Amino acid sequence: MKQNMMKSQLTALSLLRTKLIFCFLFMIVSCSKSEKEIYYGQLENYFQKEHGFKINGKINGILVLTENGCLSCDKAFSKILNEAQNKDSILILVMATGSRVDISNFDVKSKNVFFAKDSKTDNSYKFLTETKAIFIKNNAIDSVFTIQADKIEDQFSEIKKRIY
């Protein structure tokens, strides 16, 4: 009798464990989004909340300029942004204050150039703290190039191809 009770309890525990594992796996699969999906949602939220701008299907790139990385890289990237500021399909987000990188060439009246109200972003937008090019395809992030000194030539070449 004791053996049957213990066997019955073990079976119930095994069934419970199986159900818990299934529920846990289901939650992971159904709730997980790719990093690119999360960042795209955060980009949409940032532009809507901070600038009252809705990213639409015509936008295929967002160029972010900060002063947090390699100074010469940020300065060189600033020149690319300056040339791209009138492209309708490109948004430029200037997170730099102008203390290390010259931002005076950016047209404050341009509909494609946005200046951060504060160069420090809150934790929701940590991915905007580095100088980078974000390319969008079908309302999702296609690729991201975080500007790095050791890859700068290849990155700039690819970024220019995608912009022009």
Describe the structure.
This protein is α/β, with parallel strands linked by helices. Helix content is 45%, strand content 16%. It contains 4 helices and 5 strands; from the N terminus they run H-H-E-H-E-E-E-E-H. The protein has helices at 2-31, 35-51, 71-84, 152-163, and strands spanning 61-65, 90-94, 113-115, 132-137, 140-146. A 5-stranded mixed beta sheet has the order 3-2-1-4-5, sandwiched between helices. Helix 3 runs parallel beside helix 4. The chain is elongated and about 80 Å long.
Blueprint (SSEs and pairs):
Elements: H1 2-31, H2 35-51, E1 61-65, H3 71-84, E2 90-94, E3 113-115, E4 132-137, E5 140-146, H4 152-163
Parallel strand pairs: 1-2, 2-3
Antiparallel strand pairs: 1-4, 4-5
Helix pairs in contact: 3-4
Task: List descriptors.
164 residues, alpha/beta, elongated
Distance between the termini: 80 Å
Number of strands: 5
Radius of gyration: 23 Å
Share in helix: 40-55%
Runs with pLDDT <50, length 5+?
22-31
Mean pLDDT: 84
Give, in spatial order, the strands making up the sheet with the most strands.
3-2-1-4-5
Instruction: Describe the main β-sheet briefly.
Output: 5 strands, mixed
Helix/strand order, N-terminal first: HHEHEEEEH
Number of helices: 4
Strand content range: 15-25%
